[in-house]
Every structure is written in structure tokens, then in C-alpha cells.
Please model this.
Amino acid sequence: MKPPPFDYHAPRDLGEALAALAEAGPDGKVLAGGQSLIPLLNMRLAAPARLIDINRVAGLDTLSAGPEGVRAGALARHARVERSAEAAAVQPLLRRALRLVAHPVIRNRGTVVGSLVHADPAAELPAVLALLGGSVRLAAAGGAERDVPAAEFFTGPMESAVRPGELAVSAFFPALPPGSGVSFRELARRHGDYALAGVAVLVTPAAARVACIGVGPVPIVVDVTEQAAAGDWAAAAQAVRERVEPEEDIHASADYRRHLAGVLAGQALRDAAREAETTGVRHHA
Amino acid sequence: MFDITLRVNGVLRQASVPGRRLLSDCLRHDLGLTGTHVGCEHGVCGCCTVLLDGEPVRSCLTFAVTVDGREITTVEGLAGPGGELSPVQRAFAECHGLQCGFCTPGFLCTATALLRDNPSPSEEDVLEGLSGNLCRCTGYQNIVKAVHRAAELIAEESR
Model:
């Protein structure tokens, strides 16, 4: 239960970090909060030849919230984003999802961007990014930064669009539009465990979407605008059950996970629709 | 090897460590502070929780070299300068918040930070705050009681 040996680099600024990553190429791995990577190293499920520790890189520990949305830098820890009143006012789903991420002590170290790059299909934050249509900003030595939309960012279980030599420097979560509501619901055996299944939901005056976790290789986004407009939550839940691709493991059967995704989607859609009504009233008042 | 300096329980300590040295192992093996316990070594049990610049973190999920120059508080640093137990430690003893004691250093560090940030926590706050620490003896009831009792002790003593 000890990490395998690796070459360790602790760059002080972004240029140095990108140079180290470019030199390491496919052998390089970024260490930010380490709450997913270090367990993998301890259990020897990962053995990168070079670790580039970005914890000292100046300028990455940023969090900004404006009318457009919330941008979290690569060193913004879960706890900081969770506690930010500004971020919660602009996009309340972030705080609600973060409270379901592991335990408070893990959230003191783990980073929002790190969770996205780790791309665990059962994790909450990838679903939030996918649901809201956010993006991840990637930087590389000698190149321009590129913004990858959520729909293209998650490419498979624990796989993202980050190429060797690239560093995810920030992530952007769009603001909640006026008259909209959001909800996050999941079922886990114990609070803080990975969920057997979960859903993030967004209901706006124009659209309704569900993003499902734990029931596919990546967060699965289902458009239920039509069903929501008709107030037909049973049909919306049915649409979710038809789209998810759950697998069986020791914790739950595929059928149970499919059932769960439908039930949670129905509940969360009702929550979000109710919230959209009340915020809508407030906006009109 | 990397030469690092940590301020541990108020004392500057130096160690020479490989990049892969976990903070938990650095504290125990390099610095001889065996109060920090290592249970699962993958972030599940919470036994190895220490305070990093005051915030509770898993020392088994942190590399020592990453926290070079930072301040660490371990269970050895919770008691007062004369060795008198802290209110949280006294409450755990008083309420039978431990049996075998293996998980206790992690619970003490977690509860100390919890009560600093939230001096009068609700039942929910305590359960959520302790949710990342496992205990296989007590059934948790007395640990939860101890945290509430510690909140009373801290309030009484600050009067």
C-alpha cells in the first residue's frame, strides 16, 4: 500500500508546469488534490513515471463568479467552491452536488477540476458540467489554450479529452438562467460513498435535462423538454430508463440501477420544476 | 530525495524524503510521531487525519513533499503545553468515545477542526462532520456524544 517510485516535479509557475508536462509526454501525470490519484497510486493501480505536482503553481487557486457563470481554477478545492456564497448564488447546483462528493475532509484537498479530469462515471461533478453545458480550459506548452465543451470532454470511463502534455487550468459552469430550477439526487449505500445511481436535473423555461451518473461510461444527458412541458414526469422517467446503460457489479444489478435512475429522475425533475416556479415568481415580482 | 521542513505541532522539523513518501509515513517513520495512525491507506477510514494549516486532511492521501513549509497538527499537538488534555480529548474520555483507540487520533483531529469552525453544531452537523471517520468499536453513539460534550466544555471554558 505504498505508491510506486516516480520522478517528482514541483513547478512554481504555469510555464514551468507546461514545460515539465511537455517533456514527460504520456509518462506524465498531474497531481492536484490527490484524493483520487493517490489511492490509485497506493493500490498500485496507476504507476506514472513522472508526477507533476501543481500545488505550488501560482495563479491556479482561483474562483470567480459572474453573471455568465462560475469559473474554478485548477487548485480550487471542493470545500472552497462549496462554501462560496457567490458561486452558490450564480449556480446553486454546484454546492448541492459538492455536498455529495465523498466527505468533508476529502473535500478540503480534492479539486473541482481534478474531479472532472479524473472523469469517474459515478462522480457528481462531471454530471454537473455535462448537464449545464460547461467547459474545461486546457493549456499546453507553446500552444494556445483551448476550451473543450463538456459534451466532448468525457470520452469514456476515467478518460477525458486531455492530451498528453496538456494541463486543465480551469473549468466553467454556466449560471442558472432566470426562472429555472436545479436538483441533485443520488442513492448510495452510505453517505459519501459512490452512488449506485444519481441524477442532476435542470429545468428552465425553455428546456429540461437530466444528467445521470453511475449508469454509463460517461455522464448520460437526456433531454426531457417535451415530457416536462406536458408535466408528464412518468414519461420523463421512462425516457431516462431507456437511455441509461448501467452495468451490474457487487453493489447492484443493472436492472436495479436502471430503475433507480428513473425514480431519481422523476423526483429530481419535480424538485427542479417546483424551484423554477418559485424563482420565476421572484423574478417577475 | 527532497529536503523538507514542516512545522509540526509548533516545532520546525526537517526530513529528507523521496517524492513518494506519504505524509502519514513521514510523520510516523521520519519524525517518530506515531500518534497518527494508518488504517486503510486509501482514504476511507480517516484514522490518519491531521490538520494541515488548521484544516483536517488525510495524511495518507498527501505527499510529504507537497506540504513542504506548511504547518501540521497531529494528535500529539492537541493537548496544552503542560500536557493537559484539550476539551475534545477530555470529552472523549468522559463520554467513553473510544475503546481500542485506533481510530481516535483521526476523530480527535476532525472534531477539533469541526468545533473550531462551528462551536455549537447540530446533530446533523456532527454526523456530517464525522462521516469520513470509521470506528469499529463504539458504534459511534458515544463519539457523537463526546463532540457535543466537547462543545459544552469549550463554551464553559471560554466564558
Chain A touches chain B at residues 1-8, 10, 31, 34-35, 38-39, 41-43, 51, 53, 55, 79, 102-106, 108-109, 191-192 (CB under 8 Å). Chain A has three domains: 7-54, 70-174, 181-284.
